[in-house]
Design goal:
Elements lengths: L2 E5 L5 H8 L9 E3 L12 E7 L2 E3 H11 L2 E7 H6 L9 H8 L10 E6 L9 E3 L6 H9 L10 H5 L45 H4 L12 H4 L3 H15 L4 H7 L6 H4 L20
Parallel strand pairs: 1-2, 1-3, 3-5, 5-7
Antiparallel strand pairs: 4-6
The chain binds iron/sulfur cluster (SF4) (2 copies).
């Protein structure tokens, strides 16, 4: 299966993660990827992976041109699906800084608002993650049917959640945990693995760091509005801890959860429907 990677505005983390899959991918099938295989335009391929958001006029043009030459389009990573780091350019202070820059005029024109790629082209599947871990690319490109993300990160994490341990304060800082077998929520950490879709192997909590939800909402939340995810996390903390709900609510908006907040682009101008869960890998 010949595939190509079209990189719109993002951080290139999705591309680096794909390359980290190394020998498990047959890169001879990679027909186009500006980071490693240069070509002027996206050639005809079976599958086009699109990373990054539509941030500039160049992004928009490249995406529209490429879509007509490929059989299947997969939106990869938070930026292509939900805004991500590219969505930061919607902030007025960042726009003013960028537009005042001496480099203006020598870079693509920034659009007023960053958009996910399905506002412009039909997307066959979504592969969320910031970035998706290498093993997800291996499954996606070698055996897509093997991606079965019907559950939550906790299922892959497997830490214990004893009912009699109920922290009443949130840890001040994200730190490596004290007890490697105990759920991080039970150690007062803001782990959102309870409502985040699985598939990443729970790499963060297994290493002692809270999940920040980069795989996006789990299947039972994906077709609901963004608030449903926030509310579900707060309910989980009410069930598992004695930490005040307002504290959780406030902490969910803190900068260290930027990867979590990147999931919540403002789509009010796009009239975008929620993504059907069958299409989300
Ligand atoms: S540490 Fe996080 S991912 Fe692991 S069981 Fe607890 S809430 Fe779930
Ligand atoms: S554990 Fe959470 S933050 Fe870490 S890769 Fe998985 S979904 Fe993303």
């Amino acid at each position: 299966m010949r595939f190509a990677v079209l990189q719109l505005t993002g951080c290139a983390g999705c591309e680096v993660s794909l390359l980290n899959a190394g020998d498990e991918l047959d890169l001879a099938n990679l027909a186009y990827m500006p980071l490693v295989v240069t070509a002027h335009d996206v050639p005809e391929v079976d599958v086009l992976l699109v990373t990054g958001g539509i941030r500039t006029d160049e992004d928009l043009l490249k995406l529209r041109e490429s879509a007509s030459r490929v059989k299947k389009i997969i939106a990869v990573g938070t930026c292509a699906i939900s805004g991500g780091v590219a969505g930061l350019g919607d902030r007025q202070d960042i726009r003013e800084h960028f537009l005042a820059s001496a480099h203006q005029g020598r870079v693509p024109r920034m659009l007023p608002k960053c958009s996910p790629i399905d506002t412009e082209v039909k997307v066959d599947n979504y592969l969320p993650g910031c970035p998706p871990v290498p093993s997800l690319y291996v499954k996606l490109l070698n055996d897509p049917a093997s991606i079965k993300s019907t559950s939550i990160v906790c299922k892959e994490c497997g830490r214990r959640k004893p009912k009699d341990i109920r922290p009443d304060t949130l840890a001040d800082v994200v730190h490596k945990d004290e007890d490697p077998d105990l759920c991080l929520v039970k150690q007062g950490q803001l782990c959102v693995g309870t409502s985040t879709r699985n598939g990443c192997g729970a790499i963060c909590p297994r290493a002692g760091f809270p999940c920040v939800g980069c795989r996006g909402p789990s299947n039972n939340l994906i077709e609901k509005d963004a608030n449903a995810w926030f509310e579900s996390i707060i309910r989980v903390f009410q069930r598992m801890t004695d930490i005040d709900s307002d504290t959780i609510s406030e902490a969910l908006k803190s900068p260290h959860l930027a990867l979590f907040l990147f999931q919540f682009s403002d789509y009010t101008d796009t009239e975008l429907d929620s993504r059907p869960k069958e299409k989300v890998l």
